[in-house]
Amino acid sequence: MVRGVGKVISGQGYKEYRLGDYSRWLQKYVVNGNNWDEIKSCLVDLHFCQRLSGEKAEELYKQSLSPTESGCCKPPSYCGFQFQNATVWTAPKSGPAVPDSDCTTWSNDQMQLCFDCKSCKVGVLGNMKREWRQLAIINFIILVIILIVYSLGCCALRNNRADGFKRHKGYP
């Protein structure tokens, strides 16, 4: 899989990401215990997942979910959980379809959901990467504007000096 690119699940309006899609530095900084606890508490305090809606699974799947919503507010699709509502999912009686830690970590408790899942951490990384990219583009545009203004100022100053020099020359 290409780094940083989520896998689109057919018929769904969201991507599922893997932790390996991101640099080790970003993983280490964001996913470590102290930083993740702060991020998780913000998500819980904001009631982040209560924004999701949908009476049927198809309605939720067609929504364009952010990486954080996809990773934190629902169990990963490969777990095989059954939809009850946007933030309540039922595990199959035989257990999750895949023996993955995200499948066993999922909780219907609105203060837990999948906030401790790898998929949630990856979703936050996905949002951060997108926002950093937007910030980098804005910074580049500002840099270009500053360079243009500086160049115009230098040209104007040079032309001003040249004009002043010609006017005050002595007689030939």
Automatic annotation (TrEMBL):
Its membrane topology: Multi-pass membrane protein
Keywords from UniProt, A to Z, are:
Membrane, Transmembrane, Transmembrane helix
Q: Does the keyword Transmembrane apply?
A: yes
Q: Which GO terms describe its cellular component?
A: membrane
The record's comment on protein family reads: Belongs to the tetraspanin (TM4SF) family.
TM annotation in the entry: 135-153
Kindly list any coiled-coil regions of this protein. none
Q: Which domain of life is it from?
A: Eukaryota
Spell out the protein name for this chain: Tetraspanin-8
One Pfam family assigned to this protein is Tetraspanin
The protein's location, in the record's own words, is: Membrane
